[in-house]
From TrEMBL:
Keywords: GTP-binding, Nucleotide-binding. It comes from Grus americana (Whooping crane). The lineage of its organism: Eukaryota, Metazoa, Chordata, Craniata, Vertebrata. The keyword GTP-binding applies. This is SEP12 protein. It holds the Pfam family Septin.
Amino acid sequence: VIEEKGVKMKLTVTDTPGFGDQINNENCWDPIIKYINEQYERYLREEILITRKRKIPDTRVHGCVYFVPPTGHWLRPLDLEFMRRLSKIVNVVPVIAKADTLTLEERAEFKQRIQEDLKTHAISVYPQEDFDQDPDDRALNDRIREKIPFAVVGADQEHQVNGKRVLGRKTKWGIIEVENPAHCEFPLLRDLLIRSHLQDLKDITHNVHYESYRVRRLNESNRP
């Protein structure tokens, strides 16, 4: 439960440890796709009951944060195939993990390559251009799209910096502050997911991804 300025929000994070770490990664996305579709199925079952609950419990996945390893080269075939399959059923937000292993020049170059890769393979990641409702949305989302994938650094320890306690990662040359935009783009990712675009993520999940799943399932059940 996240609380900010008296507003409480329940947030569920589902992790997929070990994904893509095998020698043979063939069809390694299947359990993840199965899990996402199971949540749609659960919601659909509740929705088609004659006496529905006033508020259907929503366990659907509204966003998938996809961590790209910081190779500095191009996307791996595994990353491309995974994002291609997943972007059809869920909002995919790619991020560069452990971005402190790249210099700023390498980081900028790597981002450029990832953007080119996504365009070449026609992979539509969140925020999708097709769903921009008005010019203001488009202008805001264009600025976000320029920065995607966000280069993030994770940390779970606090350190003292200029008399303040900050969340960061200690290195030989100093402390990388996770919440400092000059150090990493974690604040951009957080704002996108739980502030500026939270409702939009839910709307696209409901109106686009869930709707296409619902239509497909109802068509299947209508077949003789």
